[in-house]
Design a protein that fits this description.
The protein folds into 3 domains: 197 residues, Aminohydrolase, N-terminal nucleophile (Ntn) domain (Glutamine Phosphoribosylpyrophosphate, subunit 1, domain 1), CATH 3.60.20; 57 residues, no CATH class; 124 residues, Glutaredoxin. The protein is 44% helix and 23% strand. The chain contains 15 helices and 18 strands. A hairpin with a 5-residue loop joins strand 9 and strand 10. It is found in: Nucleus. This is Thioredoxin domain-containing protein.
Length: 418
């Protein structure tokens, strides 16, 4: 009986000693660099529960003692455990009361030993750590991976930042960066990560550490623009690229020619090349083509003009109107001219057959030309009736509407998060 209790107690203690064997709530990239007065570090405040960006107010940077600043990506609970280790280390150091204190180099070495030790126990902390600091005028910036690999550099990044932000830092970092230029460079890196990393959130903090100590900014958001064609319809962008590629390049990418070893192999190679070419041509022929001008009806009007990130330039006419007839093929020519503008659609409404639509948007004369963005009327055209003037007008109004919508969305996100 006693042996069973001892055995169960032993199993319980082993279970209690284990922490994160796989990550649950994680943070993404941390980016840091040296500038002329100290160290700057940036991280967003997102926490992903699996693939869900669930938490949006998690700070992942903390001061360590008098001279150091720590940032972490990876498992949040492991980062909290590491912070407890560091609190104990700093407390133990201060108890000596010898007038000395641990600097960033000592803290970095300590973290390297901790991470390597946990890796050897097959129970690692699932974090990548960035440690920066200033002591006696000497700037120090280093990184430690989850397996205890460490290095120092003038700029470092974790997560996707190591792939997307480091190239920017290599091109634009310089030793005499001012505080303002350093912040701009970090914001540029964080904006790229926000565009490309699904785990990033547009709410970040920037911290600096100098001889005077650590300062961590209040959370704020970056100005962004999401109207790029590749963001709105990546598949369409890839298809256009495919049609632009020279024929021989497409063949090389799709089916590299096998080596020729005699007449039979040459025949088979030519056959494979022909099949590949026919397949590409068939794909292009059967791809659905979008009409240049889309006819809108009471059943489709509301859903179409409410499409996200899309501007609609709509002509309202009736068949018996002399001025509408005088337009001729102007609207069809405009539709052709707008090909390739995926964020702008050209439509028309027959007010004779769709009176409810025209009444809803206050059409009192014909022809009338209006621009809608995400369901809202944003402009009415009253200029020259030629393709160039119409195209210039809708491009300008669409750009204005996109920027206004982006600013509104950023403001709403900040209100919700705060």
């Amino acid at each position: 009986m006693e042996s069973n209790q001892a055995k169960s107690s032993l199993l319980a203690s082993e279970s209690d000693s284990q922490r994160t064997l796989s990550p649950y709530v994680t943070g993404t990239s941390v980016v840091a660099l040296k500038y002329k007065d100290g160290i700057l570090m940036a991280a967003d405040m997102g926490g992903s529960y699996g693939s869900t960006l669930r938490y949006k107010s998690m700070s992942r940077m903390t001061p360590v003692g008098k001279h150091s600043l720590l940032g972490a990506s990876g498992e949040i609970s492991d980062f909290q455990e590491i912070c407890k280790y560091l609190d104990e280390l700093i407390l133990h150091d201060s108890m000596w009361d010898d007038g000395n204190s641990l600097g960033p180099k000592e803290v970095h070495n300590y973290l390297t030993r901790v991470m390597y030790n946990r890796r050897n126990k097959f129970d690692p902390f699932w974090n990548s750590l960035v440690l920066g600091g200033v002591k006696k005028g000497e700037k120090y910036l280093g990184m430690v991976s989850m397996i205890g690999l460490s290095f120092v550099d003038d700029h470092v990044a974790t997560g996707f930042g190591n792939h997307l932000a480091r190239p920017i830092l290599r091109d634009e970092w310089r030793e005499d960066l001012s505080f303002e230029d350093g912040v701009k460079l970090l914001e540029k890196c964080m904006r790229v990560l926000l565009y490309r990393d699904r785990s990033a959130v547009n709410k970040l903090q920037i911290a600096k550490i100098t001889e005077e100590g650590v300062t961590i900014s209040q959370p704020y958001s970056l100005k962004t623009f999401w109207g790029f064609t590749a963001f709105n319809n990546p598949t369409a962008a890839d298809l256009r690229l495919l049609t632009i590629l020279p024929e021989n390049r497409v063949l090389q990418q799709r089916s590299p020619p096998p080596p020729f070893h005699g007449k039979r192999q040459q025949v088979m190679a030519n056959l494979n090349r022909s099949i590949t070419l026919c397949s590409l041509l068939l794909l292009l022929l059967i791809s659905p083509t979008k009409p240049e001008v889309i006819t809108l009806t009471p059943e489709t009007f509301s859903d179409k003009v409410k499409e996200k990130d899309t501007a609609w330039f709509v002509k309202f006419c009736v068949p018996w109107c002399k001025h509408c007839k005088n337009l001729g093929s102007l609207w069809e020519d405009l539709g052709t001219a707008m090909e390739g503008q995926d964020e702008i659609e050209v439509g028309e409404v027959d007010c004779g057959a769709s009176k409810s639509v025209c009444s809803k948007v206050n059409i009192h004369s014909y022809p009338t030309f209006k621009v809608f963005y995400e369901g809202e009327e944003v402009a009415k055209y009253q200029g020259k009736r030629d393709v160039d003037s119409l195209k210039a007008f809708v491009l300008e109004e669409a750009e204005k509407a996109e920027k206004a919508a982006a600013e509104k969305e950023n403001d709403n996100d900040i209100d919700k998060e705060l």
